[in-house]
Amino acid sequence: MKFFADTAEIAEIRDLAATGLLDGVTTNPSLVQKSGRDFVEVLREITEVCSGPVSAEVVALDYEGMMAQAEKLRRVADNIAIKVPLTPDGLKTCKTLSSDGTMVNVTLCFSPAQALLAAKAGATFISPFVGRLDDIGSNGMDLISDIRMIYDNYDFGTEILVASVRSPMHVVEAAKMGADVMTAPPKIIHQLFKHPLTDAGLAAFLKDWEATGQQI
Ligand code: E4P
């Protein structure tokens, strides 16, 4: 399973890249706003640190506008994946860009039917937002298993990119279901390391080692 970092904070991305765990990055307009940085400038820096897919989202709502913005964004680096919303114009843009060899991430997916449409439009990635479904009392992970079944039934090459990840259990469940990618805030990726028995075991080993009086 590939790990993408869901952030536009360059320091966090550098930190994760150093662990060898980083396979890509996703950004969205809210994350760019939070970073307080110029979009193109921050994208350029991210692509210098991460050689995997870096998602950059268009904000136009019509096909012509999305295509014009995608042109500018994909010029930043070869590893930019253009992020388009799951709308008719978004999928039309997806079809044009993917036929041209550009990676496309179709975002804001909340149903299996939408995921089917994105795959038919040639999406490289489909981004189902599990956390936002949980927020409204649905089960976000059910959507992942439905999409996995549909994509496997028809051998679609579109990768399932689990988004809106809010906890380590979302990551584990997604991996059990065979999702291809998950994107999470760096904080969640760091939480994956944590187990109280690891901390307790390490403390006990260090205490016993100190008692031997030896050094390595
Ligand atoms: C994915 O590409 C999105 O940027 C992200 O996962 C949305 O997460 P949120 O629902 O926590 O904002």
UniProtKB/TrEMBL annotation:
Name this polypeptide is given: Probable transaldolase
Enzyme active site: K83 (schiff-base intermediate with substrate)
The organism's taxonomic lineage, starting at the top: Bacteria, Pseudomonadati, Pseudomonadota, Alphaproteobacteria, Sphingomonadales
InterPro entries: Aldolase_TIM, TAL/FSA, Transaldolase_3B, Transaldolase_3B/F6P_aldolase, Transaldolase_AS, TSA/FSA_arc/bac
Function as written in the Swiss-Prot or TrEMBL entry: Transaldolase is important for the balance of metabolites in the pentose-phosphate pathway.
One Pfam family per UniProt: TAL_FSA
Pathway participation: Carbohydrate degradation; pentose phosphate pathway; D-glyceraldehyde 3-phosphate and beta-D-fructose 6-phosphate from D-ribose 5-phosphate and D-xylulose 5-phosphate (non-oxidative stage): step 2/3
Domain of life: Bacteria
EC number, as in UniProt: 2.2.1.2
HAMAP family, alphabetized: Transaldolase_3b (MF_00494)
Gene3D superfamilies in the record: Aldolase class I (3.20.20.70)
Family, as annotated: Belongs to the transaldolase family. Type 3B subfamily.
Enzyme kind, highest EC tier: transferase
SUPFAM superfamilies per UniProt: Aldolase (SSF51569)
UniProt KW keywords: Cytoplasm, Pentose shunt, Schiff base, Transferase
Subcellular location field: Cytoplasm
Organism: Sphingomonas anseongensis
Catalytic activity: D-sedoheptulose 7-phosphate + D-glyceraldehyde 3-phosphate = D-erythrose 4-phosphate + beta-D-fructose 6-phosphate
Gene: fsa
